[in-house]
Amino acid sequence: MNNFEYCVPTKVIFGRDTQKRAGEIIREYGFRKVMIHYGGGSVKRSGLLDQVTASLEEAGIESILFGGVQANPTLSKALEGMEICRRENVDFILAVGGGSVIDTAKAIAAGACYEGDVWDFFERKSLIECALPIGVVLTYPATGSESSNVAVINNTEVQKKLLISSSWIIPRYAFLNPVLTYTLPERMTARGITDIFSHICERYFCEEKTVGVVDRMAEASLKTLVEIGGRCLREPQNYELRSEIMWIGSIAQNNFLGLGRTQDWCVHALGNELSALFNCIHGDTLSVMMGSWMRYVYRFDIPRFSRYARCVF
Q1: What is the pTM (predicted TM-score) of this model?
Q2: pLDDT band, residue 280 (cuts 50/70/90)
Q3: Which residues contact 5 (CB under 8 A, 6 or more apart)?
Q4: What is the spatial distance between Cα 225 and Cα 301, in angstroms, rounded to a whole number?
Q5: Cβ atoms 216, 232 nearer than 8 A
Q6: 259: pLDDT confidence band, cut at 50, 70 and 90?
Q7: pLDDT at residue 7 in the model
Q8: What gap in Å lies between CA 290 and CA 123, rounded to an integer?
Q9: How many helical (H) and strand (E) elements, i.e. helices and strands, does the chain have?
Q10: In the predicted model, what is the mean pLDDT of residues 28-37?
């Protein structure tokens, strides 16, 4: 096992109605003005946005709304959010949504504390040295961004989709209520499971011949996804299935399953290029390429791919 450092400071509040505790938890740490960042109209129609807003009001916390994030989160939207945070003296960002909303919130959090162009971070011209604190009310398990140190943003002007990685942008709190995922369309659920599966595979297929217990945990997570993924599509309001997927989504990307190994992120890197050039949905690009990637590279470590086939399928 290779040397590593590991720290995930995200406080996870998991279970039914946990989104209603947002105000209580955020108030504990003295935050006073929150920007609630969300995507489309579904959080409004479902009443979730009202619940979160009410929770903050009950805790005596002022909030402002900033919505409109779409899939393949854009730099232009992040720039809008940065301006609002600076103008309104926001001291905390609460992302209500999935990966696109969370990643945009992370870019906003880093950019609001930086005097230069936030794209500098994505092009490795500058390092993140400060960021506004972030919380998440997760509605779509897929990217694992609710407890990871990574954000991916699409700069449509230059047709580049790049990532930043920093401990500064790891969310402080993640409110995970599986019930909030009941109404996800079947195709979105499938895309999310595909993304989670890929996150684990791109850690599992590594240069090291064995990583012992971490390998076994990765195999168990993949096997669980295989066993329950199809069932979840058929039983969208099964709390236990939704719970499993939501939790595996988090541990798949907070690097718990990647410790001590050299990781291969070829499929994600290629998928990001397709998203940047053609505005493809992230989960779709992964589903198209993962099998092709495996057929290309399996011969370099046949024993590992053989074990993968036996243990997972």
Answers
A1: 0.94
A2: confident
A3: none
A4: 23
A5: no
A6: very high
A7: 87
A8: 26
A9: 12, 8
A10: 95
Tokens found for residue 150: 């990574």
Contact 96, 37 (CB under 8 A): yes
Q: Residue 54, class by beta-carbon neighbours within 10 Å (0-12 exposed, 13-18 middle, 19+ buried)?
A: middle
**Residue 279 to residue 186: CA distance in whole angstroms:** 21
Tokens of 89: 């003296």
For the record, the structure tokens of 98 come out as: 């999935």
Residue 211 has pLDDT above 90, yes or no: no
| pLDDT above 90: residue 115 | yes
DSSP-assigned beta bridge partners for residue 115:
none
Note whether 11 and 24 are within 8 A (CB).
no
Check: CB of residue 133 under 8 Å from CB of residue 164: no
Structural contact between residues 169 and 109, judged by C-beta atoms closer than 8 angstroms: yes
Residue 36 and residue 94 in contact, taking contact as beta carbons nearer than 8 Å: yes
Instruction: Categorize the per-residue pLDDT at 41 as very low, low, confident or very high, splitting at 50, 70 and 90.
Output: confident
